[in-house]
Design brief:
The protein has about 375 residues and is mainly alpha-helical. Helix content is about 65%, strand content about 5%. It has a three-stranded antiparallel beta sheet, covered by helices on one side.
């Protein structure tokens, strides 16, 4: 379970990046929703302890439990369907005892770990039809369970992670280009069908969010309201921001023009009070550091874990910031390590703990 590691192999750079973003998150949540700041602080402390502890566990041993992770993930997602807590028109939360959490957030990490071991085990046969079909089915089952909650944004993250997993696992470029040749026109057709008035592919509120993105003037008082205010907040903060908890009457946050300011629109508060450059740079450096670790991993499983976590950070950050800056339709994804949300935060710390161990066992030149 434990090995003799060298201190020089410990990735303090990644830990500093995680700490910096977590501290920015705590500070910003204290401005956006002071009542949640203490909980976020407790989550960060607990997450750091778990991450450091996991960083010294041999991930090769942990991955031997890959089927248990997969089945446990399905059980949790199934319990959400059977007895999940409802909120905002969705059934995504599970309450066990006094603990309420969102299994779809944990699913991202569990699926990365599962497929890391599964693909390494069948690496020599990865580009054969039986293995590809098996992987597709194994991913398809939890993906459908997440999508039907409904959690469209999380299901899109899972698709992106799945693509990174296959690429990092060594799938043939012929299969990649073949899949793109089919997927791109299929997605265009699917979106066209989904936007038809009588279509049931998307929920009504999901269609309306897309329509509000395409024609914000028509929806400026309701569906596009939050994003338009978010852009105003970020723009007014310019590069250096207006200052932490400023008293300016022109503040979008102070005027309560942002709902979910501590979660989906945390980037708007950061942009208004501090400027947006630092957070973007930190997130980019974190994703790049994970990719760098993937290149040094001792085996395929380590490469998949580190690359997928880097992809998760990059994609989820892009979507969250894209929504806040109105370059993407409104969808609810937290900004990694920054937004309030203990399930997302703890899941990311768990994933990064395993990434740190991948770095500890990296190939030595």
């Amino acid at each position: 379970m434990f090995k003799n590691y060298r201190l020089r192999d410990y990735d303090f750079k990644l830990i500093i990046l995680i700490l910096a973003l977590s501290i920015i998150g705590i500070i910003t949540i204290g401005s956006a929703e002071p009542a949640q700041q203490t909980k976020q602080m407790a989550g960060v402390v607990a997450g750091l302890v778990i991450m450091i502890a996991l960083s010294f566990f041999n991930y090769s041993v942990i991955l031997k439990l890959y089927w248990l992770m997969y089945i446990g993930n399905l059980v949790l997602l199934g319990l959400v369907i059977l007895m999940g807590e409802e909120g905002n028109g969705a059934q995504r939360w599970l309450k066990i005892g006094g603990l309420q959490f969102q299994p779809s957030e944990l699913a991202k990490i569990l699926l990365i770990l599962f497929f890391a071991q599964f693909i390494m085990k069948y690496k020599e046969k990865l580009n054969t039809f039986p293995v590809i079909a098996s992987i597709a089915v194994l991913m398809g089952v939890p993906w459908i369970m997440v999508k039907e909650q409904p959690a469209l944004s999380t299901s899109l993250v899972l698709i992106f992670i799945f693509c990174v997993i296959l690429y990092a696992g060594g799938i043939s470029y012929k299969l990649i280009f073949g899949a793109l040749a089919v997927a791109i026109p299929a997605v265009i057709i699917l979106v066209s069908l989904a936007m038809q008035p009588d279509s049931t592919i998307l929920e009504t509120y999901q269609k309306n969010r897309i329509l509000a993105f395409v024609n914000p003037e028509e929806y400026s008082t309701d569906l596009a309201y939050q994003q338009l205010n978010s852009v105003m907040a970020i723009g007014s903060g310019e590069l250096d921001g207006k200052g932490y908890k400023n008293n300016e009457i022109t503040s979008v946050k102070n005027g309560n023009f942002l709902s979910e300011a501590e979660t989906d629109f945390i980037f708007a508060v950061i942009g208004e009070e501090f400027g947006f450059i630092v957070v973007i740079i930190l997130l980019m450096l974190m994703a790049m550091e994970c990719v760098s670790i993937a290149g040094k991993a001792k085996d395929t499983a380590g490469t998949i874990i580190a690359a997928s976590m880097g992809g998760l950070i990059a994609f989820q950050s892009f979507v969250n910031i894209g929504v806040a800056t109105f370059i993407l339709p409104n969808t609810g994804l937290p900004l990694p390590f920054v937004s309030y949300g203990l399930t997302s935060l703890m899941s990311l710390y768990i994933g990064m703990g395993v990434v740190l161990n991948v770095r500890l066992q990296a190939k030595r030149s």
